[in-house]
Design a protein that fits this description.
147 residues, alpha/beta, Nucleotidyltransferase, domain 5, 6-stranded mixed β-sheet, two-stranded antiparallel sheet, 31% helix
Length: 147
């Protein structure tokens, strides 16, 4: 019986690296054509803006924006679109997702039911800098043995 194709998706806010997983005994195989980077971020000033008080002549720093990062949300959407298309084309059947908690949550919220069902393991850690060997060693403890 043919073993289902499993992809490992490593993501952070700047890049996505995709590997083919062939089991615990082999290093994950990078799929460079499937991997991509986020578009460059818009340039902003390093310091917070200033505002003048209505009641006096003093200036105050504005509070930093603390809402969700719209550029990160767009990138998470691009990741999901890419995975949805690959799933439709049958390029993988199972998926292992590894990303920092914020990125992983954004990816999860964008997934269709079909894509969510293909996920067999989730790791809330940024593993994009891991080498193939280090990634294999890390996954040995974290991914179900059935893969």
């Amino acid at each position: 019986m043919k073993q289902p194709m499993t992809w490992i998706v490593l993501a952070n806010g700047e890049e996505v690296a995709i590997y083919r997983y062939e089991g615990r005994s082999a290093d994950p195989v990078p799929l460079p054509r499937e991997s991509f980077h986020a578009p460059p971020r818009a340039e902003f000033a390093d310091e917070q803006g200033r505002s003048k008080s209505r009641m006096s002549t003093s200036m105050h720093r504005m509070a930093p924006h603390s809402g969700p990062d719209p550029e990160l949300a767009r990138f998470a959407g691009q990741i999901v679109e890419h995975l949805e298309e690959a799933l439709r084309k049958g390029r993988f059947e199972r998926l292992v997702l590894a990303a920092g908690p914020k990125v992983l949550g954004m990816i999860r919220s964008e997934m269709s039911d079909a894509l969510a069902k293909s996920v067999c393991a989730e790791l809330d850690k940024d593993l994009t800098q891991y080498t193939d060997r280090k990634l294999r060693d890390y996954l040995e403890d974290k991914v179900p043995a059935a893969l």
